[in-house]
Predict the 3D structure of the following.
Amino acid sequence: MERVLLLNTSYEPLCVVTSRRALALILKGRVEAACGDLLEIQGVSHKLRIPTVIRLRRYINVPRRGARWSRQAVFQRDNYTCSYCGIRLGEKQRNKSLSRSDFTIDHVLPVSRGGKNSWTNTVCACAVCNQRKGNRTPHEANMRLSWEPKMPRVTYLVASGQIPASWKVYLEVQN
Ligand SMILES: [Zn+2]
């Protein structure tokens, strides 16, 4: 069976679906054509033409399994905002405008006490809060996390089978 590439609203590829599934999504109004290439498929009584790439009308969030942890990724997840006092990149602290290098990674359960480099145990913190917290848990330091650290939600590609060469060209154009 012919296959169609399904994109998220943001043009990120989500998966490859069968032409039958693609047709169902088109008929339900969930997707729109994302390219001019058409694919001919056999309908009940006559032949139908559907786009080879379709795009969702409504954005969906797809959590990535095992998103890799890194210090940089934690800063990005927390958007350079201190998890304790809420100060952000560019805001003033002690008469100094904060730059990226003023932010640190805080281990909720300190490394010295068995805390790991994981999405749920690390948060972005300003140097002042990190120093104040020291070798303690937030509870011990009487400090509160503004949000619960989690694995970030990002989209990922699930391509089943081969992606035709024309789609690759199309995706390069989109990227
Ligand atoms: Zn802070």
